[in-house]
Amino acid sequence: MVAQSDSSNLHHVVIVGGGFGGLYAAQKLAKAPVKVTLIDKRNFHVFQPLLYQVATGGLSPADISSPLRALLSKNKNTEVLMGEVTEIDPEQQTVKLRYRDVKYDSLILATGVTHQYFGNDWEKNAPGLKTIENALEIRRKVFIAFESAEKEPNPERRKDWLTFVLVGGGPAGVELAGALAELAHGTLKEDFRNIDTSEAEIILLQSREHILPVYPPHLSLKARKSLEKLGVTVKTGVRVDDIRGQLVTYRDGDKLEQIRTRTVLWTAGMKASPIANMLAECADAQLDQAGRVIVEPDFHLAKYKNIFVVGDLAHYPDGEGGILPGIAPVAMQEGFYVARFIRNGIQNRPLKPFKYTDWGNLAVIGKHQAVVDMGWLKLSGFLAWFVWLFIHVFYLLEFDNKLIVMIQWAWSYFTDSKGARLITTPGKDPEIKLEDDHETIIYEATLNPTETSISL
C-alpha cells in the first residue's frame, strides 16, 4: 500500500459515490484503523430498484431514500461531504472538489452510470430512470398526460395523450410498464369524468428477441404474458430510429413504423458517469464500449494500485466470457471486497480473490406477478412476487423506510390506491392551449425562473 497522508497518522480512504458500492464500502470500514471520507453530489442514498414506484406515484422519494449522514452517523471514523469531484490527481493523490481539495491514500470510485441514448439527442423528450429527479420528471409527465387528456375535446389528440411508449425491455422497463398499466387500468379508473383511463395504451419496445433477456426464455415469456394480461403491448425485435415531436419511429425488420404519443420513457442502455473519462485522461484507465472502467482482479487500476472502481462504473469479468451486471448485489459485494482489501493490506493480512455470489434476478410485473431466477430456483406468479417483496423490503436501509413501504404496499394491494400522485415540478400550472391553426395542442410550463415556456 502507499504511504500514509502527512495530515494524519491514519490511512485515509476517500470514497466517491453514495450508492450501493460506496455506501457498503464505507460501512465495512467503520471499525477499521482508517479515516474515511465519503463524497457525493447529493446528501442521500436512494434505493434505485424502487424508483419506478416513485415514477408512478406508488411511493414518495423519501420512502426509498436515506440521508447519508444518518446512515453513517455511528461510523466515528467517517465524514460525509456533499460535493462534486471536478478533478483527480493520481500523482498528488488528491481529489479536487469545487470548494476544496481532499488528499487520499486509497480512493474508491463508485459513481455508477447514466442513460445511454446511443448518440441521439432524445433525453429531453424521453427521460430515463436512474435518479430521484428522473423519477419525479417521469411522474410529472405521466400525470400531466392524464390531466391533459381530461381537458382535450378532440378524440385523436386525446389518444396521443393516453399513449405511453417505453423503450427498453430490461427489468426497469418491464417494472415501469407493469406499474403504468396498473395505474391506468386500475388506480385511476374512477378519478376522471371525461376520459376512460383504461383506454390508455402502454407500448413496450424491445430491441432483442425477448424482454428480460438475461432471464431464462421461459421466464421471459411468462413475464411477457403477464404484461399483456395487464394490457401492455409488447413489441420485440424492434429498434427505435427517431423520437421527434409527437412521433416515435421504430424499425421492425425492413419496415419503418410510427407511434403517435405525448409520453416517451427511456429504460434502454446505459453509459458510465463522467468520472470514467476523467480516469482515462488522468490515470490512463482503459474503458469498454459503454465507457466503464476496466479494472484488475482486485478492482484497482492497472497503473495505480490505490485507485479502485466498483459498482456499475466497473468492467469486471464474470468468469464466463461476460462482465458482472450493473445491479445492486454486485455493487454491494464489490464495495465490501475493496474495503476488506484495503483493511487487510494495512494490516498485512492476505485476502482471497474476489468471487461474486449470484443471488439471482428478480423483476415484478404488477400486483402479485413477478419472475425470479436464482439459478437453482426459478419462479413466476404470486410466489415470485412474494419473494420479490420480501427481498426489496429487506434491503431498504432504514427501519422507518421498511415500515412505511410495507404499509404503503399493503394499502395499495387492498385498495388499488397510489397516494403519491403529485405533480410537483416548479413552474406554472399545466395548461392546454390551442394554437392559431386550432390543430396542435401544446403544453407550456416554466421549468425554472430563468427560462420562458417550452413546447412539447
Automatic annotation (TrEMBL):
Domain annotation External alternative NADH-ubiquinone oxidoreductase-like C-terminal: ranges: 360-414
Keywords of the record: FAD, Flavoprotein, Membrane, Oxidoreductase, Transmembrane, Transmembrane helix
Alphabetical list of Gene3D superfamilies matching this protein: 3.50.50.100
Names of required cofactors: FAD
Presence of keyword Ubl conjugation: no
EC numbers for this chain: 1.6.99.3
Residue stretches spanning the membrane: 376-397
GO biological-process terms attached to the record: aerobic electron transport chain
InterPro entries (alphabetical): FAD/NAD-bd_sf, FAD/NAD-binding_dom, NADH-Q_oxidoreductase, NDH2-like_C
Domain FAD/NAD(P)-binding, chain residue ranges per copy: 12-335
Acyltransferase as UniProt keyword: no
GO molecular function: NAD(P)H dehydrogenase (quinone) activity
Family named by the database record: Belongs to the NADH dehydrogenase family.
PANTHER family named in the record: 64 KDA MITOCHONDRIAL NADH DEHYDROGENASE (EUROFUNG) (PTHR42913:SF3), APOPTOSIS-INDUCING FACTOR 1 (PTHR42913)
UniProt protein name: NADH dehydrogenase
Species per Swiss-Prot/TrEMBL record: Crocosphaera watsonii WH 0003
